[in-house]
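stage 2 :: seqdesign
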C-alpha cells in the first residue's frame, strides 16, 4: 500500500523557534491527515526540514508529551496520541505545592464544578447508545469492586463514559488532563486502597439519574460522591 501524501515542512524564520515549531508541527499533522497511532517524522528529519536545532525539536516534543498529544517510544520513534491542528487550543496545568492534602483539595474544588456540570449535561443529552456504554462500564466497576474491594481503573472508565455522553469533548479532555497531571497524587492517596470506598453505591444512583434524564438528581448524586472524597482526604491526611 502506498504512503499517503504528506504536507511539506518548510524552514522557519528567526523568532520564537519553539512556538513556531509547535505551530508548524500541528499544521503538518492536520494537513498530512495523521491519525492517532501514526508515527511523526524522525527528529533529524524535523531538524532539517524546519532548519532548527535538536534542542528546539526536543523541547517541542516534550511540550506535546506533557499535553498528551504524542508518545515517544524508545527505539521506535514518536507517535501521535491525539489528532490536532493549528486551531487546537492547548491548556497545560501547573500546580506547585509540596503537600499531598493541599493538592487533592485544590484539584477537588475544580473537579467538583466540572464534574457536576458534566453529569448534569450527560443526563440531558445522553443517547440510548451512550446509556448502554455507561451501564457496561458500571457493571464492570461493580464486579471488580465486589471481587477486590477497589476498582480504580474501572471507576475511571465509568466516569469517562459519562463525559462522552455530554457530547462536549472538553469535559473529557479537561478532566482527563487533570487526572493525568496529578495521577501520582490520586493513585492510592495516603497508601489507602479504601480511599473513597464509601462512594461506591452512589455510582449506581448516579447512573439511574442519567438513565432517567434527571439532571437535578445527577447533580445531587455527584455531590454525594465528591463529599465522601473530600471527607476521606481530610480524615486520612490527619
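stage 2 :: out
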Amino acid at each position: 500500500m502506498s504512503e499517503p501524501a504528506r504536507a511539506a515542512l518548510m524552514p522557519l524564520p528567526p523568532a520564537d523557534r519553539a512556538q513556531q515549531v509547535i505551530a508548524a508541527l500541528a499544521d503538518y499533522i492536520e494537513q498530512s491527515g495523521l491519525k492517532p497511532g501514526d508515527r511523526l517524522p524522525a527528529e533529524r528529519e524535523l531538524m532539517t526540514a524546519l532548519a532548527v536545532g535538536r534542542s528546539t525539536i526536543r523541547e517541542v516534543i516534550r511540550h506535546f508529551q506533557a499535553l498528551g498529544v504524542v508518545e515517544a517510544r524508545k527505539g521506535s520513534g514518536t507517535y501521535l496520541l491525539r489528532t490536532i491542528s493549528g486551531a487546537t487550543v492547548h491548556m497545560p496545568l501547573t500546580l506547585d505545592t509540596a503537600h499531598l492534602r493541599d493538592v487533592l483539595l485544590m484539584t477537588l474544588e475544580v473537579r467538583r464544578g466540572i464534574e457536576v456540570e458534566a453529569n448534569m449535561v450527560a443526563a440531558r443529552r445522553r443517547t440510548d447508545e451512550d446509556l448502554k456504554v455507561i451501564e457496561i462500564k458500571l457493571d464492570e466497576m461493580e464486579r471488580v469492586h465486589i471481587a477486590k474491594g477497589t476498582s480504580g481503573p474501572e471507576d475511571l472508565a465509568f466516569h469517562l463514559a459519562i463525559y462522552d455522553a455530554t457530547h462536549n469533548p472538553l469535559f473529557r479532555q479537561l478532566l482527563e488532563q487533570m487526572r493525568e497531571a496529578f495521577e501520582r497524587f490520586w493513585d492510592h492517596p495516603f497508601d489507602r486502597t479504601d480511599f473513597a470506598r464509601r462512594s461506591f453505591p452512589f455510582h449506581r444512583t448516579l447512573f439511574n439519574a442519567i438513565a432517567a434524564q434527571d439532571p437535578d438528581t445527577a447533580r445531587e448524586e455527584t455531590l454525594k460522591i465528591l463529599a465522601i472524597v473530600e471527607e476521606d482526604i481530610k480524615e486520612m491526611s490527619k
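stage 3 :: structure notes
- The two ends are 61 Å apart (CA to CA).
- DSSP finds ten helices and two strands in the chain.
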